[in-house]
Design goal:
This protein is of the alpha/beta class. It has helices at 18-23, 46-61, 75-81, 94-104, 114-124, 126-133, 149-164, 188-198, 225-234, 243-250, 258-261, 279-294, 312-315, 320-334, and strands spanning 83-88, 109-113, 138-142, 168-173, 201-206, 238-242, 267-273, 299-303. Helix 6 runs parallel beside helix 7, helix 7 (149-164) runs parallel beside helix 8 (188-198) and helix 12 (279-294) packs across helix 14 (320-334).
Length: 336
Protein backbone atom coordinates (compact mmCIF):
# COMPACT_ATOMS: atom_id res chain seq x y z
CA UNK A 1 0.00 0.00 0.00
CA UNK A 2 1.41 3.43 -0.90
CA UNK A 3 2.41 5.52 2.10
CA UNK A 4 -0.12 8.19 1.11
CA UNK A 5 -2.95 5.66 1.50
CA UNK A 6 -2.01 4.46 4.98
CA UNK A 7 -4.18 5.53 7.96
CA UNK A 8 -2.95 8.56 9.90
CA UNK A 9 -3.55 9.50 13.50
CA UNK A 10 -3.67 13.08 12.26
CA UNK A 11 -6.89 12.30 10.36
CA UNK A 12 -8.75 10.97 13.39
CA UNK A 13 -11.30 13.07 15.27
CA UNK A 14 -12.29 10.91 18.25
CA UNK A 15 -15.38 11.76 20.27
CA UNK A 16 -15.56 10.40 23.82
CA UNK A 17 -18.73 10.33 25.91
CA UNK A 18 -18.29 11.20 29.61
CA UNK A 19 -19.54 7.77 30.71
CA UNK A 20 -16.73 6.17 28.72
CA UNK A 21 -14.20 8.22 30.70
CA UNK A 22 -15.58 6.74 33.92
CA UNK A 23 -15.88 3.20 32.55
CA UNK A 24 -12.25 3.29 31.41
CA UNK A 25 -10.90 4.10 34.88
CA UNK A 26 -9.32 0.66 35.17
CA UNK A 27 -5.68 -0.46 34.90
CA UNK A 28 -4.46 -0.17 31.29
CA UNK A 29 -4.02 -3.32 29.18
CA UNK A 30 -0.30 -3.34 29.99
CA UNK A 31 -1.25 -4.13 33.61
CA UNK A 32 -4.39 -6.21 33.13
CA UNK A 33 -2.89 -9.46 34.34
CA UNK A 34 -0.54 -8.23 37.08
CA UNK A 35 -0.80 -9.22 40.73
CA UNK A 36 1.27 -9.07 43.88
CA UNK A 37 2.46 -12.58 43.02
CA UNK A 38 3.83 -11.44 39.64
CA UNK A 39 5.84 -8.54 41.10
CA UNK A 40 9.52 -9.47 41.17
CA UNK A 41 11.42 -7.42 43.75
CA UNK A 42 15.08 -6.82 43.05
CA UNK A 43 17.01 -8.72 45.77
CA UNK A 44 19.51 -5.87 45.84
CA UNK A 45 16.74 -3.38 46.74
CA UNK A 46 15.08 -4.33 50.05
CA UNK A 47 12.68 -1.40 49.75
CA UNK A 48 10.95 -3.17 46.86
CA UNK A 49 10.06 -6.16 49.04
CA UNK A 50 9.00 -3.79 51.82
CA UNK A 51 6.74 -1.92 49.40
CA UNK A 52 5.17 -5.17 48.24
CA UNK A 53 4.34 -6.14 51.82
CA UNK A 54 3.00 -2.65 52.57
CA UNK A 55 0.62 -2.77 49.61
CA UNK A 56 -0.52 -6.29 50.45
CA UNK A 57 -1.35 -5.09 53.97
CA UNK A 58 -3.15 -2.04 52.61
CA UNK A 59 -5.21 -4.24 50.27
CA UNK A 60 -6.36 -6.17 53.32
CA UNK A 61 -7.70 -2.97 54.89
CA UNK A 62 -9.64 -1.76 51.86
CA UNK A 63 -13.33 -2.35 52.27
CA UNK A 64 -12.92 -3.73 55.78
CA UNK A 65 -15.88 -2.92 58.05
CA UNK A 66 -15.19 0.39 59.77
CA UNK A 67 -12.41 1.34 57.35
CA UNK A 68 -14.54 3.59 55.15
CA UNK A 69 -14.90 6.50 57.53
CA UNK A 70 -12.49 8.95 56.01
CA UNK A 71 -8.96 10.05 56.83
CA UNK A 72 -9.78 12.52 59.57
CA UNK A 73 -9.53 10.39 62.67
CA UNK A 74 -7.02 10.02 65.48
CA UNK A 75 -4.66 7.41 66.82
CA UNK A 76 -4.58 3.89 65.46
CA UNK A 77 -7.85 4.32 63.58
CA UNK A 78 -6.45 7.31 61.69
CA UNK A 79 -3.26 5.43 60.84
CA UNK A 80 -5.30 2.54 59.47
CA UNK A 81 -7.44 4.88 57.38
CA UNK A 82 -4.62 6.88 55.75
CA UNK A 83 -3.92 6.59 52.06
CA UNK A 84 -0.73 5.04 50.71
CA UNK A 85 1.73 6.80 48.43
CA UNK A 86 4.43 4.96 46.44
CA UNK A 87 7.48 7.10 45.75
CA UNK A 88 10.31 5.99 43.49
CA UNK A 89 12.08 6.48 40.20
CA UNK A 90 11.11 5.28 36.76
CA UNK A 91 10.56 1.60 36.10
CA UNK A 92 10.82 0.28 39.66
CA UNK A 93 7.35 -1.29 39.58
CA UNK A 94 5.15 1.38 41.19
CA UNK A 95 2.36 1.05 38.63
CA UNK A 96 2.63 -2.74 38.78
CA UNK A 97 2.06 -2.61 42.54
CA UNK A 98 -0.73 -0.03 42.28
CA UNK A 99 -2.53 -2.12 39.65
CA UNK A 100 -2.01 -5.22 41.82
CA UNK A 101 -3.64 -3.38 44.71
CA UNK A 102 -6.59 -2.49 42.48
CA UNK A 103 -6.99 -6.11 41.36
CA UNK A 104 -6.80 -7.38 44.95
CA UNK A 105 -9.18 -4.86 46.51
CA UNK A 106 -12.95 -5.26 46.61
CA UNK A 107 -15.01 -2.99 44.39
CA UNK A 108 -16.40 -0.69 43.34
CA UNK A 109 -13.00 0.80 42.53
CA UNK A 110 -11.32 3.02 39.96
CA UNK A 111 -7.79 3.38 38.60
CA UNK A 112 -6.46 6.23 36.51
CA UNK A 113 -3.58 8.60 35.97
CA UNK A 114 -3.56 12.06 37.47
CA UNK A 115 -4.23 13.50 34.01
CA UNK A 116 -7.22 11.20 33.50
CA UNK A 117 -8.81 12.46 36.73
CA UNK A 118 -8.30 16.10 35.79
CA UNK A 119 -9.78 15.32 32.37
CA UNK A 120 -12.74 13.68 34.09
CA UNK A 121 -13.37 16.87 36.05
CA UNK A 122 -13.22 18.76 32.77
CA UNK A 123 -15.85 16.47 31.28
CA UNK A 124 -18.19 15.98 34.26
CA UNK A 125 -17.52 19.07 36.34
CA UNK A 126 -16.26 18.89 39.91
CA UNK A 127 -19.58 17.89 41.50
CA UNK A 128 -20.20 15.30 38.80
CA UNK A 129 -16.76 13.79 39.39
CA UNK A 130 -17.29 13.59 43.15
CA UNK A 131 -20.66 11.95 42.56
CA UNK A 132 -19.12 9.45 40.11
CA UNK A 133 -16.25 8.47 42.44
CA UNK A 134 -17.53 8.83 46.00
CA UNK A 135 -19.19 5.42 46.00
CA UNK A 136 -15.86 3.73 45.31
CA UNK A 137 -14.13 1.58 47.88
CA UNK A 138 -10.73 2.51 46.41
CA UNK A 139 -9.42 5.25 44.13
CA UNK A 140 -5.97 4.64 42.64
CA UNK A 141 -4.10 7.61 41.16
CA UNK A 142 -1.07 6.78 39.03
CA UNK A 143 1.69 9.27 38.14
CA UNK A 144 0.59 11.91 40.64
CA UNK A 145 1.94 15.08 39.04
CA UNK A 146 0.94 18.57 40.06
CA UNK A 147 2.06 20.94 37.36
CA UNK A 148 0.20 24.12 38.21
CA UNK A 149 -1.52 25.65 41.22
CA UNK A 150 -4.98 25.24 39.68
CA UNK A 151 -4.61 21.48 39.33
CA UNK A 152 -3.15 21.28 42.82
CA UNK A 153 -6.17 22.98 44.41
CA UNK A 154 -8.51 20.91 42.25
CA UNK A 155 -7.00 17.55 43.20
CA UNK A 156 -6.54 18.50 46.85
CA UNK A 157 -10.21 19.43 47.10
CA UNK A 158 -11.30 16.32 45.21
CA UNK A 159 -9.29 14.05 47.51
CA UNK A 160 -10.68 15.78 50.56
CA UNK A 161 -14.23 15.21 49.37
CA UNK A 162 -13.54 11.58 48.55
CA UNK A 163 -11.82 11.04 51.89
CA UNK A 164 -14.81 12.54 53.71
CA UNK A 165 -16.97 10.00 51.86
CA UNK A 166 -14.75 7.21 53.20
CA UNK A 167 -12.93 6.36 49.98
CA UNK A 168 -9.52 4.71 50.43
CA UNK A 169 -6.81 6.42 48.34
CA UNK A 170 -3.59 5.10 46.82
CA UNK A 171 -1.18 6.97 44.57
CA UNK A 172 2.18 6.76 42.83
CA UNK A 173 4.59 9.46 41.75
CA UNK A 174 8.25 10.13 41.19
CA UNK A 175 8.35 12.81 43.89
CA UNK A 176 7.47 12.66 47.57
CA UNK A 177 4.16 14.42 48.41
CA UNK A 178 5.85 17.17 50.41
CA UNK A 179 8.25 17.81 47.51
CA UNK A 180 5.65 17.98 44.73
CA UNK A 181 5.90 21.30 42.96
CA UNK A 182 9.59 21.87 43.66
CA UNK A 183 11.22 23.77 40.82
CA UNK A 184 7.88 24.83 39.36
CA UNK A 185 6.02 27.30 41.56
CA UNK A 186 6.82 28.90 44.89
CA UNK A 187 3.49 30.58 45.67
CA UNK A 188 2.56 30.23 49.32
CA UNK A 189 -0.94 29.04 48.47
CA UNK A 190 0.50 26.35 46.22
CA UNK A 191 2.88 25.07 48.90
CA UNK A 192 0.08 25.08 51.47
CA UNK A 193 -1.97 22.82 49.21
CA UNK A 194 1.03 20.53 48.70
CA UNK A 195 1.44 20.14 52.45
CA UNK A 196 -2.23 19.33 52.78
CA UNK A 197 -1.92 16.55 50.23
CA UNK A 198 1.14 15.13 51.96
CA UNK A 199 -0.78 14.82 55.21
CA UNK A 200 -3.27 12.45 53.62
CA UNK A 201 -0.79 9.71 52.73
CA UNK A 202 1.75 7.39 54.28
CA UNK A 203 4.78 7.36 51.95
CA UNK A 204 6.39 4.10 50.89
CA UNK A 205 9.75 4.47 49.15
CA UNK A 206 10.79 2.11 46.32
CA UNK A 207 14.43 2.25 45.24
CA UNK A 208 16.01 0.65 42.19
CA UNK A 209 16.92 1.12 38.56
CA UNK A 210 14.50 1.41 35.63
CA UNK A 211 13.71 -2.19 34.68
CA UNK A 212 12.98 -1.05 31.13
CA UNK A 213 16.60 0.01 30.78
CA UNK A 214 18.29 -2.99 32.30
CA UNK A 215 20.39 -3.87 29.29
CA UNK A 216 18.58 -1.35 27.02
CA UNK A 217 19.97 2.04 28.16
CA UNK A 218 19.31 4.00 24.97
CA UNK A 219 16.76 4.07 22.17
CA UNK A 220 17.56 2.00 19.07
CA UNK A 221 18.94 3.76 15.98
CA UNK A 222 16.16 5.42 13.96
CA UNK A 223 14.90 3.83 10.77
CA UNK A 224 14.96 5.57 7.42
CA UNK A 225 11.79 7.14 6.04
CA UNK A 226 11.58 4.31 3.51
CA UNK A 227 11.91 1.65 6.21
CA UNK A 228 9.21 3.26 8.31
CA UNK A 229 6.80 3.40 5.36
CA UNK A 230 7.56 -0.21 4.40
CA UNK A 231 6.98 -1.36 7.98
CA UNK A 232 3.68 0.49 8.17
CA UNK A 233 2.52 -0.99 4.86
CA UNK A 234 3.35 -4.51 6.05
CA UNK A 235 1.75 -4.22 9.50
CA UNK A 236 -2.01 -4.69 9.99
CA UNK A 237 -3.51 -1.94 12.13
CA UNK A 238 -0.57 0.40 11.58
CA UNK A 239 -0.69 4.17 11.25
CA UNK A 240 1.86 6.38 9.51
CA UNK A 241 2.27 10.06 10.35
CA UNK A 242 4.71 12.81 9.61
CA UNK A 243 5.87 13.88 13.06
CA UNK A 244 5.16 17.63 12.62
CA UNK A 245 1.63 16.82 11.37
CA UNK A 246 0.94 14.67 14.41
CA UNK A 247 2.15 17.37 16.82
CA UNK A 248 -0.11 19.90 15.13
CA UNK A 249 -3.08 17.52 15.33
CA UNK A 250 -2.54 16.87 19.04
CA UNK A 251 -2.95 20.58 19.67
CA UNK A 252 -6.50 20.32 18.28
CA UNK A 253 -7.55 17.19 20.21
CA UNK A 254 -8.26 17.33 23.94
CA UNK A 255 -5.86 15.06 25.87
CA UNK A 256 -8.84 13.18 27.33
CA UNK A 257 -9.37 11.82 23.81
CA UNK A 258 -5.83 10.60 23.18
CA UNK A 259 -6.77 7.08 24.27
CA UNK A 260 -9.66 7.01 21.80
CA UNK A 261 -7.28 8.37 19.16
CA UNK A 262 -5.49 5.02 19.39
CA UNK A 263 -8.56 2.77 19.18
CA UNK A 264 -7.75 -0.19 16.95
CA UNK A 265 -4.15 0.91 16.36
CA UNK A 266 -1.54 -1.85 16.65
CA UNK A 267 1.64 0.03 15.71
CA UNK A 268 2.42 3.73 15.36
CA UNK A 269 4.88 4.80 12.66
CA UNK A 270 6.40 8.28 12.64
CA UNK A 271 8.58 9.93 10.03
CA UNK A 272 10.83 12.90 10.62
CA UNK A 273 10.97 12.85 14.41
CA UNK A 274 12.75 16.00 15.57
CA UNK A 275 13.44 17.68 18.94
CA UNK A 276 10.32 19.18 20.51
CA UNK A 277 11.27 22.58 21.87
CA UNK A 278 7.80 23.99 22.55
CA UNK A 279 6.74 23.03 26.06
CA UNK A 280 3.02 22.81 25.30
CA UNK A 281 3.68 20.44 22.41
CA UNK A 282 6.08 18.43 24.57
CA UNK A 283 3.49 18.00 27.33
CA UNK A 284 0.90 16.83 24.82
CA UNK A 285 3.41 14.28 23.57
CA UNK A 286 3.89 13.11 27.16
CA UNK A 287 0.17 12.30 27.40
CA UNK A 288 0.15 10.50 24.05
CA UNK A 289 3.21 8.49 25.04
CA UNK A 290 1.49 7.41 28.25
CA UNK A 291 -1.54 6.20 26.29
CA UNK A 292 0.74 4.33 23.86
CA UNK A 293 2.55 2.67 26.74
CA UNK A 294 -0.71 1.79 28.50
CA UNK A 295 -1.79 -0.07 25.39
CA UNK A 296 1.58 -1.67 24.55
CA UNK A 297 1.57 -0.08 21.09
CA UNK A 298 5.04 -0.29 19.49
CA UNK A 299 6.52 2.81 17.87
CA UNK A 300 8.68 2.80 14.73
CA UNK A 301 10.29 6.08 13.76
CA UNK A 302 12.76 7.88 11.53
CA UNK A 303 14.59 11.11 12.31
CA UNK A 304 16.38 11.49 15.63
CA UNK A 305 16.54 8.67 18.21
CA UNK A 306 13.46 8.79 20.45
CA UNK A 307 15.53 9.36 23.57
CA UNK A 308 16.64 12.71 22.11
CA UNK A 309 13.13 14.15 21.78
CA UNK A 310 13.45 16.78 24.48
CA UNK A 311 16.29 19.32 24.38
CA UNK A 312 18.39 20.09 27.49
CA UNK A 313 16.44 23.27 28.21
CA UNK A 314 13.23 21.29 28.71
CA UNK A 315 14.92 18.51 30.67
CA UNK A 316 16.32 21.09 33.07
CA UNK A 317 12.91 22.57 33.82
CA UNK A 318 10.10 21.80 36.21
CA UNK A 319 8.64 19.03 34.05
CA UNK A 320 11.89 17.08 33.95
CA UNK A 321 10.44 13.95 35.53
CA UNK A 322 7.55 13.84 33.10
CA UNK A 323 9.91 14.07 30.17
CA UNK A 324 12.28 11.44 31.54
CA UNK A 325 9.36 9.05 32.07
CA UNK A 326 8.31 9.63 28.46
CA UNK A 327 11.80 8.93 27.15
CA UNK A 328 11.90 5.76 29.22
CA UNK A 329 8.57 4.56 27.88
CA UNK A 330 9.23 5.47 24.25
CA UNK A 331 12.54 3.63 24.41
CA UNK A 332 10.67 0.55 25.60
CA UNK A 333 8.06 0.89 22.84
CA UNK A 334 10.73 1.40 20.18
CA UNK A 335 12.36 -1.88 21.14
CA UNK A 336 9.10 -3.85 21.47
Amino acid sequence: MPAADLPRLADRQPQVAPDRLVAELVPPPHFTGVSFATYRPDPAQPSQTAALHALEAFAGRVGRPGAKRGLFRRGKEAAAARGVYLDGGFGVGKTHLLASLWHAAPGPKVFGTFVEYTNLVGALGFSGTVEALQGSTLVCIDEFELDDPGDTVLVSTLLARLAEAGVQLAATSNTLPEALGEGRFAAQDFMREIQGLAARFDSVRIDGEDYRHRGVPTAPPPLTDEQVAASAAATPGATLDEFPDLLAHLSRVHPSRYGALLDGVRTVHLRGVAPVEDQSAALRLVVLSDRLYDRDIPVRASGIPLDQLFPPALLAGGYRKKYLRTLSRLTALATA
